[in-house]
Amino acid sequence: MSDYILQMKNISKSFPGVKALDHVCLNVRPGTVHALMGENGAGKSTLMKCLFGIYKKDEGQVIFNDEEVDIKDTNDALHRGIAMVHQELQPIPDRSIAENIFCGRYPMKNIGPVQIVDHARMYKETEELLKEVNLDFNPKVKLGTLSVSQMQSVEIAKAVSVNAKIVIMDEPTSSLTENEVEGLFDIINKLRSKGVSIIYISHKMEEILKISDEVTIMRDGTYVGTWPANELTTDLIIQRMVGRELTNRFPPRFNEPGEVVLKVENFTSIDPRSFRDVTFELKKGEILGIGGLVGAQRTELMEGLFGVRHIEKGTVTYKGETIKIHHPRDAIKKGIALLTEDRRATGIFGVLSISDNVGVASLDKYIDYGVVLNNKKLESLVKDNIDKMSIKTPSTKTQIQSLSGGNQQKVIIARWLANDPEILILDEPTRGIDVGAKYEIYTIIADLAKQGKSIIMISSEMPELIGMSDRIMVMCEGRVTGFVDSKTTTQEEIMSLATKYM
Amino acid sequence: MEFNKKKVTDFLSNNAIVILLVLLVLFVGFTRKGFFSGPNYSNIITNVTPRFIIALGVSGCLITKGTDLSAGRMVGFGGVIACTLLQRPDYTAKFFENLPQMPLVVVLLIVMLITAFFGLLNGCVVAYLKVPPFLATLGMQTIVYGINLVYSGADPIGGLRSDFTGVATNAIFTVGKFSFKWLFLIAIAAGLIFWFLYNKTRYGKYMYAIGGNENAAEVSGVNVNRSKLKIYTLAGLMYGLAGFLLAAKSGGASVNLGLGYELEAIAACTIGGVSTNGGVGKVSGILLGVLVFELLKTSMQYLRIDTSYQFIVQGIVIIVAVALDIRKYTAKK
């Protein structure tokens, strides 16, 4: 019996033109939480996909339970006791919780010669599993009615149901609020005490240091090292991840908030469960942070302002003039831009080139003779932006989907800057982006504010919210619960405002 | 070295159908008499032109992740209208007995306006009623067929004016045994206009954006509904043109004109690299696709394969083409 439940030795994996993993090692002890860290593109997900049977490793050994294994596919992995909670959950919203958990391996019973699904047993087992993850739901409830964090708990219950010895969690908290993260940690602790090992991938330092026993760090597809979590600090992790020292997580800001440019009053959604009576002001050159838990209707509020959602009442005054916004086009014409929360769903045009992705919102400016697009002018705009924001891409013709998350985000920021907006609404601008790229995006935001642009930034990361905004508006259950000055506020103060009505 | 091998296999699998069909054409060409000859080229191109025009129309729908199953029936209706308006004055069984002689261009415009109107209806149903394009245009297919039956009384229309049929038969110039017809000029013009639209205008950029990610397009300020309306209307316009030319080529029309042409057009687009996943497709690819599909049919004729079997082969090619296209996108995950 060795000290480890899982040993991955000298794993290498190449894709056309890239060596994604280069002799990487990972040793996980039984009953521990093992954090796997690295910038985006460091190879964490690739390594986990090799373990879970989604990719085939080119070379190296996997020793699981003292036995060398060759995992053929995900089914094989599950049978051996390796489960994965995916970064993007893939539920079947219109089917019950029980069916989602047992999908593909329903308990069966025989009626004469015919095999049918044993529903009674499935519901009973689901009920027990849900108790394990602190969920109190009827197993027959449609999965789609649950919140994101509850769905994630269901995913974990699924992992428990296959008696997993190792559960891989790929960024499990990326869409959870701090409260829900606590709930997740309770479940993780429960699993750990039962001897289950967890491989935990996340970008969030505070979480890692809090929950994990050991930390393995990767950089550019290579193994940097493994350390006990209690010997590490945020700065040490970042240093080892990026291979350089990052003294400041946020760039210095020199913006000076001026006169009020935007006034929103009594803004109320047509959906009674969404935002209500929201009133706030935004000044020229100001960065206004919006804090709150997931479900506080921050995104919905901004989409309402941008004309994606409908409002029941409320007025918007822009530079002293009352304006009506029924459609994103109206907002864009007034000089408002919205960087949406879900980059893949509403941000990028995956199969289109960088040029097309940048140009799409401002084509009206590049028209000659009423119809002909001036592709040359458009191209020079794109090239300027690539230089200015140091977007890493082989060419302007490259499909945006082949870029990293951080570079994709910069391309979309470039799309909006091409319109020269007065107000930029940024919804979770650094979600799923690695540390180095985050800093670059912060720098871009700080620059824009200094140029006199007004910025609204929704963020679920408390340090980011406090570190990057001038003022913070906190919301809870669709209502504004307070404004705080980010120079004097604390995480605790914001948290108590964010949970005021709960 | 290994990298190059990968590149070669990628190229082969991405262009499998085109490569196979080129091999087939070469085989037929060198084993059968008359395949590589001026008249046959001329004949193939004559068949290609209306199909190319239909494929151009459908391509916009496909690029925006839609489709248009009413294409063939609209072509048929367009052809029938054109024939009823362009019969010889001395023809005994005239459809409209006292119809004055109308200039060709006027009739062409009438035909195109009528089919464009049905295209506009398609667009409205798809864009505003949010009916899935597959079902919306399937319904329109039946409606247009019914209207055509009512209009023509299911009688074939013949006795066409020679200036009308001349559009498809008269040569502008002749090189050896290859004659360059008016028809070709119209197809070239249509191709150029579409190339311009797709590459040099907002219309094209918005079309690709909608196909690439409709939600993102909406948030970027693209008027998605209006763009779709334009795309389906333009498609209708092209079916009218194609119907007009097809009727001129056939020297007459009946309600069955254009039957099944929508499938051929969709297949040609897919073979030519228009992705059913949306956001991808070039005019040059569409031309290649139509050409390849037509060559397949001609090759089978030269090989004396029974027409019944030809249908089976065509169906298989369509399914394989789409399967290969989808494979490109699933492999990336």
UniProtKB/TrEMBL annotation, chain A:
Gene3D superfamilies linked: P-loop containing nucleotide triphosphate hydrolases
Residue stretches making up the ABC transporter domain: 6-245, 260-502
Keyword Calcium: no
Keywords linked to the UniProt accession: ATP-binding, Cell membrane, Membrane, Nucleotide-binding, Repeat, Sugar transport, Translocase, Transport
Catalytic activity, as annotated: D-galactose(out) + ATP + H2O = D-galactose(in) + ADP + phosphate + H(+)
EC number(s) on file: 7.5.2.11
GO cellular component: plasma membrane
Annotated localization: Cell inner membrane; Cell membrane
SMART domains tied to this protein: AAA (SM00382)
UniProt keyword ATP-binding present: yes
Pfam families given in the database record: ABC_tran
GO biological process: monosaccharide transmembrane transport
Membrane topology designation: Peripheral membrane protein
GO molecular function, one term: ATP hydrolysis activity
Function: Part of an ABC transporter complex involved in carbohydrate import. Could be involved in ribose, galactose and/or methyl galactoside import. Responsible for energy coupling to the transport system.
Annotated family: Belongs to the ABC transporter superfamily.
Protein name per its UniProtKB record: Ribose/galactose/methyl galactoside import ATP-binding protein
Taxonomic path: Bacteria, Bacillati, Bacillota, Erysipelotrichia, Erysipelotrichales
Automatic annotation (TrEMBL), chain B:
Cell inner membrane listed as a keyword: no
Membrane topology: Multi-pass membrane protein
InterPro entries: ABC_transp_permease (IPR001851)
Source organism (scientific name): Holdemania filiformis
Record localization: Cell membrane
Keyword Transmembrane helix: yes
Recorded GO MF terms: transmembrane transporter activity
Entry protein name: Galactose/methyl galactoside ABC transporter permease MglC
Record's GO cellular component terms: plasma membrane
TM segment ranges: 12-32, 44-64, 104-129, 180-198, 231-248, 308-326
Keyword terms of this UniProt record: Cell membrane, Membrane, Transmembrane, Transmembrane helix
